[in-house]
Amino acid sequence: MVCADCVPFAIPDFHPRYLEGRVAVVGCPRLDDVSTYRAKLRAILAVAQPRRITVLKMEVPAAAG
Predict the structure, then answer these.
(1) pLDDT along the chain (65 residues), means of 10
(2) Total-model pTM
C-alpha cells in the first residue's frame, strides 16, 4: 500500500480497514522530495513484484504529487 503520511490521521479505522495484511510505503508528496520516492518505489517494485498495489491519497491539492 502506498499512502500519504497524513492519511492514517484522517481515517479513524485506518489500521484494521487498510493496513492488515499489507506493507505500507508512506510519504508526503507536498513536503518531501518526490523524485527520491519515485526511485525507491521503483526499486521496491522491481524486487518485491507485488500482485497488486493499493494507493490511498487525501482529496486535497497537496496530495496531488
Answers:
(1) 90 93 88 89 94 87 63
(2) 0.76
Residues shown for the chain: 65
* Selection from 29, 19, 33, 25 nearest residue 3 by Cα: 25
CA distance 59 to 40: 24
Strand partners, 55: 2
Question: The sheet that has 2-4: what strands, in order across it?
Answer: 25-27, 2-4, 55-56
Domain boundaries, the chain: 2-64
Q: Where are the alpha helices (DSSP H) in the chain?
A: 7-10, 14, 34-48
**Beta partners for residue 25, in sequence order:** 2
Grid cell digits, residue 54: 493499493
